[in-house]
Amino acid sequence: MQRPVTASVTMRAPIDQAKELLGTDPAVALVDHASVDERRARTFRSTLSAPIGSGGVHHEVDIEAGLGRIVDDGAVVPLTWRAAGHKRLFPTFDGALEVTPQGSGSLLVVRGTYRVPLGPLGRLGEGLAGRTFAQESLRVFVERAGARLDAEIARRRESIAVPTVVYPESLREHDR
Question: Where are the domains of the chain?
């Protein structure tokens, strides 16, 4: 059984910078740190979290990012994720991470479908808590992705700022 899910967050980053970075290096939004090999393979390990109950629920997933496409007003990166362990017991996700203009900033959206495993037993679990975990974990995921993307764009802007050159007030030759 497939269930549609969507979550979004507004970012401060201007759309031109957000779409360029997301389209060329989605790892910046998807994970805190990615190795060269992970970037090359476009496969990343992340943790989905949802503030459910007293301590929340967390589960590691392997994310596969497809080739990003820069579209007229934004960028789209296809995403698939699977549980890092016990793959047959956990839902899978197929969708996309998209960035579009939103006022002077950007809107980051994750949308797609998740597939519930285990037939009738999976549907029962999905009805009890699975749907809430799926929605909340997607919301937390896109909020973290937006914060990472915003932070990286701000960091890059600061690092390319024109350095201030200090010139001497006067130059004179001294007689010897």
Answer: 2-158
